Amino acid sequence: MLPVVKRAASVAAGLVASSRLLDVMERMDSRRPNLLRVLTYHRVDLPGARPELRPNVLSATPRAFEEQMRHLAGRCHVVSLSEVLAACRGATALPPRSVLITFDDAYRDFAEHAWPILRKYGLPAVLFVPTGFPDRPDRSFWWDRLHQAFWATDRRDAVNTPLGRMPLTTPWRRRRAARRINDYIKTLPHRDGMDLVERLCRELDAPPSQGHVLGWEELRRLAREGLALGAHTRNHSIMHRVSTDEARAEAAGSLEDLKREVGPVDPVFAYPAGGVDDEVVRILGEEGFRVAFTTAAGINDLDRADPLRLCRLNVSRQTTLPLLRARLLRDARRHAGSAAPV
């Protein structure tokens, strides 16, 4: 047998063995009720379809997403937001292997690619909406603006940043600069970070913003079709990087916007970029939110978890179906007995 054929056969055999092992582990998985896995998606689209958007935000291709949803429909109990709320208040218990599917940011490709697949398999989901963006074609998320500024610039000399001068001579250097600035902005007070984005966009002669968030009429249609909507602030502010008054206005205002534009919605929230501390949790409790989701990885034991600090598992382009299956099992065993989510 030719070496390349032998290697291919060996890889194929390994994949089959891994799949069989996962099958066995899933059958042996915890039968305890009230353990909730929450998956986080952002965008589902073809790679390169929208080069002006930051590629790291792409969670899956349509083909990979459908493969994942087919698996969840067949091997897990995909639960609705109302079921999660009932379990959190002790009215019922979730069945074993419960999964909640969530999407953050309400990008347009959700309606184009993700929602038809979810409906095909009869799977409920929650879409968290930053309510200052619908019907605002002049507004883009700051990370997409930053990506586009570095991606589209004609400059090749170094740009001055708080992290020092960053060369722009090659595509790799521009991507690296954008990635470093993106991470740095998350450490700043929100207004300082947005000021830095504006300065860099001016210096790099960034093209005008383009809106990529679903409009209100589209969101109303999705809600009529059964999609649950949740608050995600108005301006995608990182909640522990703004003042107490601003955090309260962002959370409560987002929920008010949803109620005004869509109708009755449940008081649920997703923290942008996972920005949460004890003060932010206190504010959400005072404003009547019943459930809120972080970006901390793990599974939630709803008998003991703080409902305003629920964990999620982020899905990225690197999350193959075998990896997703393994993470669900691994995280279940790691966190099922914890007093609170990590």
Indicate the topology.
Elements: H1 3-27, E1 35-41, E2 43-44, E3 58-60, H2 62-75, E4 77-78, H3 81-88, E5 98-104, H4 109-120, E6 126-129, H5 142-152, E7 159-161, E8 164-166, H6 171-185, H7 190-203, H8 216-224, E9 228-231, H9 244-261, E10 268-270, H10 278-286, E11 291-293, E12 300-301, E13 313-314, H11 321-335
Parallel strand pairs: 1-5, 1-13, 2-3, 4-5, 5-6, 6-9, 10-11
Antiparallel strand pairs: 1-12, 7-8
Give a description of the structure.
This protein is of the alpha/beta class. It has 2 domains: 31-136 and 212-335, TIM Barrel (Alpha-Beta Barrel), CATH 3.20.20; 142-203. It contains 11 helices and 13 strands. The chain has helices at 3-27, 62-75, 81-88, 109-120, 142-152, 171-185, 190-203, 216-224, 244-261, 278-286, 321-335, and strands at 35-41, 43-44, 58-60, 77-78, 98-104, 126-129, 159-161, 164-166, 228-231, 268-270, 291-293, 300-301, 313-314. The strands form 4 sheets. Strands 1, 4, 5, 6, 9, 12 and 13 form a 7-stranded mixed β-sheet that branches. The longest helix has 25 residues, at 3-27. It is globular, with a radius of gyration of 21 Å. It starts with a helix and ends in a 7-residue tail after the last helix.
